[in-house]
Design brief:
Shape: elongated
Number of domains: 1
Radius of gyration: 19 Å
Strand content: under 5%
Structural class: mainly alpha
Largest sheet: none
Number of strands: 0
Length: 177
Amino acid sequence: MAGIGQQDLAMATVTEIADHIEATHHEFLKRELPRLGEAARAVSGAGGPLAQCAEVFRHLRSELESHLMKEEQILFPLCRTLDAATSLPSFHCVTVANPIRVMELEHRAAEDALARMRALTSDYGAPEHAEPAVRAFVAGLAALDADLREHIAKEDGLLHPRALALEEALRRQGGDG
């Protein structure tokens, strides 16, 4: 499902969307965050905006690693359960809206961190005289920014609304509300 196109994604089930996000965006992050972490260490001594950017990245990385775990262990399994359900399941969190609310708050924090890194790097531009390590770090941040914004858009724009709608339809079907 990793190769699913945008049009296919618009017609995909909640399970297919969650699978796609994990296979595409989570795998990208699991591969790139450690690599960018090494690059951030390499440029931390540069001082100024680049060192500040490396610090913002380190914080973002920590938040994203926790976020991915919560999605993979809590939210996505709830979404898949809703997708397969014929009656309203009972969740430890009462409603899928609760973890979705947390994820969306974390998305806003990630978007803020991306905006700070864009500002600190002048939209991910490396100075002409920059060392190759600096260029690689800044280019990696640009790729992270693009992927993470697409990732968040798929969750906030497709997965979350569909999971909420599934839960509501099951609630109405069961006469529970």
